[in-house]
Design a protein that fits this description.
- There is one protein chain.
- By secondary structure, the protein is mainly β.
- It is built from no helices and eleven strands.
- A hairpin with a 6-residue loop joins strand 5 and strand 6.
- It is globular, with a radius of gyration of 13 Å.
- The protein starts with a strand and ends with a strand.
- The model has no long low-confidence stretch (mean pLDDT 97).
Length: 116
């Protein structure tokens, strides 16, 4: 069955870094675009970053440009989100998402808390 399993979240101080991973199984990972979303408490889910199926194209929400980097390893069926210079407003549950045409898969999310 299709699975997306996020890991790497946790508590970090402002200015710190975290690297999120999302391991995929049950579908042809290399043919799907991958996205990271986040949802802060009481707010709507927000698209943070997207990467094309081959990894050649990336897009970011303005608030994370220059701080976050999305990447993928199709040999390992894994997508990453490197988060640097973290701010308290980055606190949220982070979800990975696989999309291809009308197919859409979600992970269970991983909590990221940025606090001193």
């Amino acid at each position: 069955q299709v699975q997306l399993v996020e890991s790497g979240g946790g508590l970090v101080q402002p200015g710190g870094s975290l690297r999120l991973s999302c391991a995929a199984s049950g579908f042809t990972f290399s043919s799907y675009a991958m996205k990271w979303y986040r949802q802060a408490s009481g707010k709507e889910r927000e698209l943070v970053a997207r990467i094309g199926s081959s990894g050649g194209s990336t897009n970011y929400v303005d608030s994370v440009k220059g701080r976050f980097t999305i990447s993928r390893d199709n040999a390992k069926n894994t997508v990453y989100l490197q988060m640097n210079s973290l701010k308290p407003e980055d606190t949220a549950v982070y979800y990975c998402n696989a999309v291809k045409y009308n197919l859409n898969y979600w992970g269970q999310g991983t909590q990221v808390t940025v606090s001193s």
